[in-house]
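Entry 14. Structure prediction run on the chain below.
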Amino acid sequence: MSARIDDADVRPAVRATGTSPSRSTSTSPNPGPSDSTSPSAIPAPRDPDGPPMLEVRGLDVVFGSGSQSVRVLRGVDVTVGTGRTVGLVGESGSGKSTLAKALVGTVRPSAGSIRIGGVDVRTLGRRDRAAMRRRVQMIPQDPYSSLDPRRTIGQALAEAVDPRHPDVRRHRDLIAEWLRVVRMPADAIDRYPHEFSGGQRQRIAIARGLLVRPEFVIADEITSALDVSVQAEILNLVARLRRELGLSMLFISHNLAVVRHVSDDVVVLYRGDVVEQGPTEQVYSDPQHPYTRSLLAAVPGAPGFSID
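Output returned:
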C-alpha cells in the first residue's frame, strides 16, 4: 500500500499533535548485569534530572542553492530523553536518514539547533567534535558495506576502540566481551565479514557501535535488509540491550510495527515535516494525522491493510 497524503493535510495536524514528547526519563535505574551483559559493558549513568540526551529544534536542511535547492527537513523538532528510545518513522524520502546524518555531523543544517547532552554541537571546535563523534554512534543499515572485507571482525572492532592505533591483542578481551553481549561466538574475532549471515553481521555492527560506550545511539533502518525471522531476533536483541544498558536511542525505520517493538515514543516524519509525535501506545491506539493512519493501515495484519 502506498501512503500518500495531500500536502494540505500536513500542517494543521502539526499544530494539533506536533508537540515535543515528555522529557521524563525511564522510571527504573540502569539494571545490574544479567547473564548477557557484564559490569564493564554498562555505561556510567547520566543524571536523570539533567537535560534530555537529544534536543533538535527548528532544524532545516537544504541541498543545492538558488532555484535548484531542495528543502529536505522543515523546522524539525525532536526530543530524546535520557535512557529512552524514540522511533523515527516515515516512508523513503521523508528525511529520516538526512536527520541522522545531521546528528552525526555529516550533513550541515541550514537552520536550527542540535543539542546532545545539553551541548550545542554547532558551537563545537574541531577537537570537541572528534570527542562528540565517540559519544554519538550510528549503527548502519547495511553492515556488510561498512565492514572492510579485508579485515577480520577483531580488527574492525579494535579500530572502533582506537582508530589511530588499533590493536586486536590489546583489546581482545573487550572485543570478545561485546561479541558475547550480542550473542556471537568468541572465534568471530578471527573471521572475516563474508563468513557471516546478514543477521550475524548486524549483531557485529551493533557490538561495534556500543563497545565505545556511546551516550547516544542512532540505529538507521537496521532491520530493513533482513528476513522477517532475523528481523525479530535483532529487534529482541535491541530491546534487551536498551533495557540492560539504559541506552538513549533514535531508532529509524519505515515500518511502524518495527518501531513499536523497541520505542518509548514515536515521531512521524512526512516530506521533511514532523506531522505527529507522542508516546508509542498513544500514537498507535489513537493516531491523529491521516499520514500516520495510512502507515498503520499498511502494516500487514492491521485493519484496513491492502496490497492494492
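The longest helix spans residues 228-245.
Filed with the rest of this week's runs.
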